[in-house]
């Protein structure tokens, strides 16, 4: 009788048919993923970004309205965003010294008038004495005395005129208006005293006028504040040039200077916009300042000390760039945004922004093999 052939256990057979293909599937998947990773490490690119700050500036440029003298701000007659015409009154500032100088000018004028009247009388007396001397009625000593008295009076007149000129110089140093208005008020003070309204003169000299047409970006002082000579009162922008968009003045770390070039793409994120919701303005580098920029140079081009402090924050050396935004007439702001439409409002001049510039792109493998990075360069 033949022995029966042993039958394979049905459970063991089932396990073999299930487990064997699974190992191959894992191996194939691993090899595919590894291949994709190698391809990405060679062909892929990891960007290196330089981050900085910027501010939007009108194409026409910006300027400051400054106080020529020390005083107390009594009125601010404009507000941020308001359009201003040249020679329009923008503020009024009081200086107690103005009134005292005007009073001294009036007193000195009166003194000069008196001295000139006395000079006329002395000159007339000299003529009479000379006539009497020719007739032998008086001694020559009287003629010499009359001439000496007349000369002393003339010296007093010249001294008073010099003092008056010094007072007008002092008045100019303590006034707040422009040169044209000051000369007009000086002419009034030099006229006949009886016709002068000294209160009106003092008020005119305490008036600050706009030196140009423009728009108020920021009021830099408060009513009641004591300000010094040359202190800025308003930060303003000139009227924009026709068909010229606003520019963005930005700063980046100085070590990124060697990687920058004109035309590089810039992402601009205004502080008034949520970048997660609306994205960033797309722009490009228009100009690169060739050296690390100083506080004084930024102050000259931008004017606002607070904005300059913002651009130079973190204390490291900075390089300055000028950025031109890409335009899109379909958006409310007029700029091209990464989100498409951008925010439902305009980006006003003086808006501070964060900026990002992609200065380099390297394959991922270069971070593992530095020689690859050198080869790529």
Provide structural commentary.
The chain has helices at 10-43, 96-134, 140-173, 179-190, 198-205, 275-278, 295-302, 305-311, 370-376; strands spanning 46-57, 62-66, 71-76, 83-84, 89-94, 207-209, 214-219, 226-227, 232-237, 247-253, 265-270, 281-292, 318-325, 352-362. α4 (179-190) runs antiparallel to α5 (198-205) and α7 (295-302) crosses α8. It has a 6-stranded antiparallel barrel with strand order 1-10-13-12-11-14. A 4-stranded antiparallel β-sheet has the order 2-9-7-4, with no helix packed on it. It contains 9 helices and 14 strands. The model is unreliable at 11-18 (pLDDT under 50). The termini are far apart. The protein has 377 residues and is an alpha+beta fold. The protein folds into 3 domains: 48-59 and 244-376, Elongation Factor Tu (Ef-tu), domain 3 (Beta Barrel), CATH 2.40.30; 62-92 and 209-237, RNA polymerase II/Efflux pump adaptor protein, barrel-sandwich hybrid domain (OB fold (Dihydrolipoamide Acetyltransferase, E2P)), CATH 2.40.50.100; 96-205, Methane Monooxygenase Hydroxylase, Chain G, domain 1.
């Amino acid at each position: 009788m033949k022995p029966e052939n042993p039958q394979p256990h049905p459970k063991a057979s089932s396990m073999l048919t299930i487990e064997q293909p699974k190992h191959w599937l894992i191996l194939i998947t691993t090899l595919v993923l590894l291949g994709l990773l190698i391809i990405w490490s060679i062909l892929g690119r990891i960007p290196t970004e330089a981050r900085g700050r910027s501010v939007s500036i009108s194409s026409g440029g910006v300027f400051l309205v400054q106080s020529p003298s020390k005083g107390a701000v009594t009125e601010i007659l404009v507000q941020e965003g308001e359009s201003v015409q040249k020679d329009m009154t923008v503020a009024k500032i009081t200086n107690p010294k103005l009134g005292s100088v005007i009073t001294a000018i009036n007193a000195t004028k009166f003194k000069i008038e008196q001295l000139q009247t006395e000079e006329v009388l002395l000159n007339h007396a000299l003529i009479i004495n000379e006539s009497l001397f020719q007739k032998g009625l008086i001694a020559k000593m009287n003629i010499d005395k009359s001439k000496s008295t007349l000369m002393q009076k003339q010296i007093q007149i010249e001294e008073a005129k010099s003092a008056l000129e010094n007072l007008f110089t002092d008045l100019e140093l303590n006034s707040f208006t422009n040169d044209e208005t000051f000369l007009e008020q000086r002419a009034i003070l030099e006229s006949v005293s009886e016709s002068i309204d000294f209160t009106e003169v003092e008020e005119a000299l305490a008036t600050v006028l706009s030196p140009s047409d423009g728009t108020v970006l920021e009021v830099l002082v408060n009513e009641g504040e004591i300000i010094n000579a040359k202190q800025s009162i308003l930060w303003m922008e000139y009227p924009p040039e026709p068909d010229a968009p606003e520019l963005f003045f930005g700063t980046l770390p100085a070590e990124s200077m060697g990687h920058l070039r004109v035309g590089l793409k810039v992402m601009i994120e205004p502080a008034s916009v949520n970048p997660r919701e609306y994205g960033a303005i797309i722009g490009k580098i228009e100009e690169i300042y060739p050296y690390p920029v100083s506080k004084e140079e930024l102050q000259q081009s931008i004017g606002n000390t607070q904005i300059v402090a913002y651009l130079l924050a973190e204390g490291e050396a900075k390089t300055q760039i000028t950025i031109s935004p890409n335009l899109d007439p379909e958006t409310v702001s007029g700029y091209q945004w990464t989100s498409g439409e951008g925010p439902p409002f305009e980006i006003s001049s003086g808006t501070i922004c964060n900026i990002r510039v992609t200065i380099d792109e390297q394959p991922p493998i270069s971070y593992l093999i530095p020689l690859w990075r050198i080869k790529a360069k």
